[in-house]
Amino acid sequence: MATRAVSGPRLDIPTSQLPTLPGVPMSEPFHAIPSFYGTETPLRFEADVHDCEVIGRIPSELEGTLYRAGPDTQFPTLAADNIVNGDGMVSSFDFRDGHVAFKCRYVKTERFLKERAARGRLYGKYRNQHTDAAETHGTDRDNTGNTTAFFHAGRLLALREDSYPHQIDPDTLETLPKWDFAGQLKGMSLTAHPKIDPVTGEWWSYGFYCRGTLDADMALQVIDAKGKVVREEFFQSPYAGLAHDFGVTREHVIFAVMPLTTDAARIAAGGDFYAYDPDLPSLWGIMRRDATVDTIRWFKLHECVSGHIMNAYTDGDMVHIDATISKGSAFPFFNDVHGNKVDPAQGIPLVTRLSFDLSSAEDKVTRTPFPGAMGEMPRCDPRYAMAAYRWGFIKTRNGIGRLDWKTRELAEHVIPGGSSQEPVFVPRRADSAEGDGFLLSLVNKPAEGCAELYVLDAQHMEAPPLARVRLPFKQPMAFHGNFVPRAERP
Ligand SMILES: [Fe+2]
């Protein structure tokens, strides 16, 4: 089976007039695919805005760079394509002396370069090599680097959960060779949701499908503050599912496996990599940090699907995990195991505290939804990661939300006519109180054809933004980013 490439000049050919081959996924013009309409239409260009227009005033404490990563499909897409299959685009907002410079560059992966040379699409569906053109075989097809831009041990990395990260030059955003941890890592994958221990500087991670097969092989990985792999242990999940995010506390690690399963026959027939199985529970595997992986205790929760985790902490025998939870699949771009579209209403996420009682023999888990906290892309003050904390932040349907876990109140910055992206919290100063600082969130303004990076005072959510950093073009949905203070750059 091969994917048919449609090059740029043929973009205006109506889909109905393109020749079809049975069983061959067709490339389509972006405008023919609903999931790539409007603000989600890929940019397909790299950009530098040396001095961004700033409406308001950049706080003097904000000195450093916000790095983000997201998908930006380079060439016309497939009818069955989805956002997570896009080519990686890394962007930066560099704050310096009250000025802001923007830059974005594609992650120059092997896949990207091959398609650019061919001037058309060669690679097919998300994590399905059976939908690729023959000349791609044996190449690194999945490592788009499109999920997280992340800084650790002096390296800026573009992560993607099925692969090793690409190194990115933190100044130019040009792509450097993939980082293989100097050959120290045996597994083939790392999560794109790394957890940094604010006390030790360690990078806690895991890999799923880490041996390159569809078996339920997982690995726990710990990389020390200097970038050395100090721990790698292999184990198996009870089933081969989807593990996008996880939790780490000062005492425990929590592996979260969602009921979207893989199937070799489906994939070989050109189907999706994942399919949602509503009959399966989600799995929550908990182990002590100082124990070995053979001690993992797997809790099972029905009608409890998580997209992301805000934070986690241990209190005695209780392990609390604050996650976005929905009743059904939170991944609407994958069908169910019967081939049907999933019900989007069942996938609406609500931030919920899952409290696991490790003293209970009957796997007791309490679910406590946060009132009104409907949203995604949860973050916290990174200095309070892995410990009891008060403030959390989410992207809401109407804007940007702040959760106060002490009072259980949600404060929201409403953005009429705009759509926000992941809110990244930046402490005002290294020694500021928890939650005293700034929220950075990219806001698309479709009516104005532009995007603005909002800078909010996290303690005054209802107030107008301190500053809006305006770009003269929109920004498609990026996934995740991190702010790197200037003092932490090499
Ligand atoms: Fe994510």
Automatic annotation (TrEMBL):
Spell out where the chain crosses the membrane.
none
Q: Binding residues for Fe cation, per the UniProt record?
A: 193, 244, 308, 480
Cofactor(s) demanded: Fe(2+)
Q: Where is this region: Disordered?
A: 1-20
Work out whether the entry's keyword set contains Oxidoreductase. yes
Q: Name one GO molecular function term.
A: carotenoid dioxygenase activity
How many cofactor units bind, and how? Binds 1 Fe(2+) ion per subunit.
The answer to whether UniProt assigns keyword Glycoprotein to this entry is: no
Q: Name one GO biological process term.
A: carotene catabolic process
Sorted alphabetically, the keyword list is: Iron, Metal-binding, Oxidoreductase
Give the record's family classification. Belongs to the carotenoid oxygenase family.
Stored PANTHER family: BETA-CAROTENE DIOXYGENASE (PTHR10543), CAROTENOID 9,10(9',10')-CLEAVAGE DIOXYGENASE 1 (PTHR10543:SF89)
What is the recorded name of this protein?
Carotenoid oxygenase family protein
